[in-house]
Design goal:
CATH class of the largest domain: Alpha Beta
Strand order of the largest sheet: 2-1-3-8-7-6
Strand content: 25-35%
CATH superfamily of the largest domain: MoaB/Mog-like domain
CATH topology of the largest domain: Molybdenum Cofactor Biosythetic Enzyme, Chain A
CATH architecture of the largest domain: 3-Layer(aba) Sandwich
Oligomer: single chain
Number of domains: 3
Radius of gyration: 27 Å
Length: 410
Amino acid sequence: MTAAVLCIGTELTRGELLNSNATWLAESLTRIGLEVTAVDCVDDDRARIEACLRRLASEHQAILCTGGLGPTTDDITTECAARVAGVALFRDEPSFEHIKERLRRFGRPEMAAANAKQADFPVGARILPNPNGTAPGFRVKLGGASSYFMPGVPSEMKAMFEAHVAPELASLVTEASHQIVLRCFGMPESECNERMAGLEAEYGVYVGYRASMPEIEVKLLARASTLDAAKALARRAADDARLRLGDAVYGEGFGSLPEHLGALLAEHGKTLAIAESCTGGLAAELMTRTPGSSRYFLGGAVAYANSAKTALLGVPAELIAAHGAVSAEVARAMAEGVRERLGADYGLAFTGIAGPEGGTAQKPVGLVHWAVASSAGASSQDRVFSGDRSVVRRRAVFSGLDAVRRLVRG
């Protein structure tokens, strides 16, 4: 069953507001089993809204539309839907009373005419109640497409979709689907694609890629006559994909590399401490986003100046003088120092030149050394990362966290 998402609002087309509704709806529809083939956005213009609705209705079996159901003059979605359906508007008295009561609860005993129009719907429409706002939604047929119109406010739209739209659409889907997401790090997207060559044809699944710097999601979507069959097919394809991608796969489903590393440390009963210079505390911040991270993350130190590296981490001043603060030797000493001082199983350290200035021919901007220390000793790696300061820091942090992941996993 094909579906399209249409988000209406000039604030969206001008970039004044992030269109989170489109992402959420597309993911939700895919999860139900629909095939989303179009996601459109249009401004508050009658002709363009009607043209979009006619085009999408001619190409899809379902349309999910958000926005334009409010009380202001630019909220014209309902009128446009009625024109495309070729019907008049009617006033729904239960909706009218709901709006009056909601306004009364908020200290507005008199309803403005602008609010009253929110109780008007195309003839033949089925009303979708909105317990969280004044704008009810509605379902109406546009050509052969079941079309659902919902508020643009994300919280209201999501509640309406889950309560009224999702169950109905799920009952219309004749083919079950199941998706497995493999989360990867340390392998370019192009190499992932090369290694996955032929998998789609072999299993009859859809393979998609999403780069979310610096991670990559590999999505495998299987369709079958039953949900169990779809799950089994997706599992076989995912197991093959794991073999093809190897150590680059760090997990399945949702959750970033820092979250996965935290779960891995907790599973093994291990702890981590982090020493940071050029990354400025970013690694520690990422590791503590998850509630309960104190089970595995003991703490960290941002030792930016050379004197701080010596005072906080015990890095010998002579070592810094001999090799420079940005060096493998200093990175290893920082990792060992933070591990010993905090009593952690693993110590992770970063030192580098995030830019945009400070580089030399021998040590260019983007050079970062990271080191991991354990009871077996310390090892370091380095790389010259491209990108601006924030990109260099983020790529370096994920590289260091991935090094810990590989060590913990063994």
